[in-house]
């Protein structure tokens, strides 16, 4: 039985609650402390989840912390992750991992010098629904994937998030904020990307917050909010990716993949579960039976009903991979290639030119039913 690695968190905002509340589901990790530049925020989370509240510097020095989870805003992901690595700790970052290839390669070099691991969200591709699709592809049920479509479109975070400002600044926008879920899932299903092209626009130069406590306040928009892209994969597949925060309603499926032998309708990669539909050649489309995958089991109530949420699965897999001496699935290489794709789309939108990828990666190992069960803590 591998010992539990001590986990600390830097950044006690909105997303931290999911990490703190879901971490006990998994073996190999134990949440021990949290930090934030706002000590009141750190103390509030610490009290809520019975942790230590630390200053950032004290957390970096803490002897009982092995991995630090970086939940800061994207604009400072690189700087904070660099501090974590320089302090001799493994780092697991929220998405997007970094905002440039240069930043990612610098972190890679720092980690390799010290024998440390880097991991990054998203880990939703480890969900039962997406691993069922992976199984269909790996067993040949779809044949070779030749093309596909992805649509992630809505009307922005100013309608629900208490502090939506950073979503509309460089380093965010729909490609870098929501795109990681879709692009990471595409990479784990289809493989690495060869080149991209895109059109981008910013229809509204400012947004009006309608969520409390800042309803009525206007915020500037300094990054494209509609990006329509094309991804050519190394295996020859071509996928359309449309991302927008300028759409009130649409009828597109989140993701469809077209293979030589059939079509698979993939549920929203932003979530772990959902229904997978499949058609073999010209046969009628059918909803596949629920796979007995633990990360597809609904465990949380949301506005849409009970949903599967196993955030921190990627963190737990990394911790156990460290102990077992194997690669972890939410790897630096995977995250950096996704960043390459996303920044390439934005660059293409600016220049009107095709952009070749500077990186590549292996598809992460599939997470089957047995492997997923092995990540879970034993029920008492």
What does this entry look like structurally?
With 380 residues, the protein is α/β, with parallel strands linked by helices. It is 30% helix and 24% strand. It has 11 helices and 19 strands. The strands form 4 sheets. A 9-stranded mixed sheet has the order 16-15-14-13-7-12-11-8-19. A hairpin with a 2-residue loop joins strand 13 and strand 14. Helix 8 crosses helix 10.
Structural descriptors:
380 residues; alpha/beta; nine-stranded mixed beta sheet; six-stranded parallel beta sheet; Gfo/Idh/MocA family oxidoreductase; NAD(P)-bd_dom_sf
Helix content: 25-40%
- Estimated radius of gyration: 20 Å
Strand order of the largest sheet: 16-15-14-13-7-12-11-8-19
Distance between termini? 16 Å
Number of continuous helical runs: 11
Outline:
With 380 residues, the protein is of the alpha/beta class. 30% of the residues lie in helices and 24% in strands. The longest helix has 20 residues, at 332-351.
């Amino acid at each position: 039985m591998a010992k539990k690695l001590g986990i600390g968190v830097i950044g006690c905002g909105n997303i931290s609650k999911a990490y703190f509340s879901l971490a006990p589901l998994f073996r190999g990790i134990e949440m021990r402390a949290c930090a934030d530049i706002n000590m009141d925020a750190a103390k509030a989370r610490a009290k809520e989840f019975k942790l230590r509240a630390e200053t950032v510097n004290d957390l970096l020095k803490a002897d009982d912390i092995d991995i630090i989870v970086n939940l800061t805003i994207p604009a400072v992901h690189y700087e904070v992750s660099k501090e974590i690595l320089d302090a001799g700790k493994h780092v697991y970052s929220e998405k997007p991992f970094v905002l440039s290839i240069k930043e990612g390669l610098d972190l890679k070099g720092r980690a390799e010098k010290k024998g440390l691991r880097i991991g990054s969200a998203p880990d939703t591709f480890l969900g039962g629904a997406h691993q069922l699709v992976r199984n269909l592809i790996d067993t040949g049920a779809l044949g070779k994937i030749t093309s596909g479509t992805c649509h992630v479109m809505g009307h922005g975070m100013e309608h629900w998030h208490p502090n939506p400002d950073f979503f509309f600044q460089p380093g965010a926008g729909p490609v870098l904020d929501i795109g990681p879920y879709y692009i990471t899932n595409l990479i784990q299903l289809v493989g690495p990307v060869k080149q991209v092209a895109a059109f981008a626009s910013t229809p509204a130069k400012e947004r009006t917050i309608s969520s409390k406590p800042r309803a009525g306040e206007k915020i500037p928009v300094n990054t494209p909010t509609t990006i329509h892209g094309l991804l050519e994969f190394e295996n020859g597949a071509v996928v359309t990716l449309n991302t927008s925060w300028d759409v009130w309603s649409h009828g597109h499926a989140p993701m469809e993949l077209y293979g030589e032998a059939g079509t698979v309708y993939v549920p929203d990669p932003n979530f772990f579960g959902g229904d997978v539909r499949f058609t073999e050649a010209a046969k009628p489309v059918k909803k596949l039976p629920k796979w007995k995958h633990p990360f597809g089991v609904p465990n949380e109530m949301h506005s849409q009903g009970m949903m599967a949420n196993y955030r921190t699965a990627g963190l737990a897999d990394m911790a156990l991979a460290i102990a077992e001496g194997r690669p972890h699935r939410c790897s630096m290489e995977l995250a950096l290639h996704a960043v390459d794709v996303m920044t390439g789309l934005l660059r293409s939108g600016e220049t009107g030119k095709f952009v070749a990828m500077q990186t590549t990666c292996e598809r992460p190992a599939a997470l089957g039913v047995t492997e997923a069960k092995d990540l879970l803590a034993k029920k008492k």
